[in-house]
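hey so u asked for the seq, here:
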Amino acid sequence: MTATRTVWLLRARYAAIGVAITVALVALQETDAFAVVNGAVDHFFDLAAQFGAPGMFVAGLVGNASILVQVPYTLPLLSVALDGATLPHLLVLGLACGVGAGVGEIISYLIADAVLARTPGLPESRVYRWIERNTERHPVLTKVAIFVWAVTPLPDDTVIVPLAMVDYGVRRIALPLFLGKVVHNLVIAFAFYEFSSWSTAQASPQVKTDFALVIIVAFVLVVLYQVERARGGRGDAARAE
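ran it, structure tokens below
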């Protein structure tokens, strides 16, 4: 078998895996397979909202400690806003939720780091080397990017997993990630107070796995493909000798 044919077969295999995972996710979403989970999440956050700031801390912690699953942990803030809460009260709840979310994100990073540490051969990937090279060359810009990403509603796992893969380190990621989640939740609390009717239309009570999971799966598949291709290249070179 020629080297070119081997490469194309490898690409086809990883492409097929990616398509299969995507189809499975779509099927799960369309068949309401997560209905039981959604109900449990709704009940948990309704309960958390009844305990004020401590409850919001727990909601933020639990909602952000999960890997690859977007949990709607800010929904209690929206419920409180719709009940007519004052802005100072909402900001206190948003701060508590943000602190919990920051702690949860750090836990999420530690989990991803522990899992990826057991995956040998990652440094052989070009994506790995590119991420590692840029984080070392631009340390300040990397921290700013982490903070900005955490402030936005974009899935945090799409930055946590790549950084965990290159062993970026919890000490370096903790502060920008934590501060980003605090700012994010304060902004969300203010937005819910000012635009509660608009927020109602935007907020979703469902647990979401599609967007973040598709991005992460694609990223991991590319890395694994590059690792396997690099190993195959070394094997071919050894046989040629």
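Residues 4 and 10 are 10 Å apart (CA to CA). The first helix runs from residue 3 to 30.
lmk if thats what u needed
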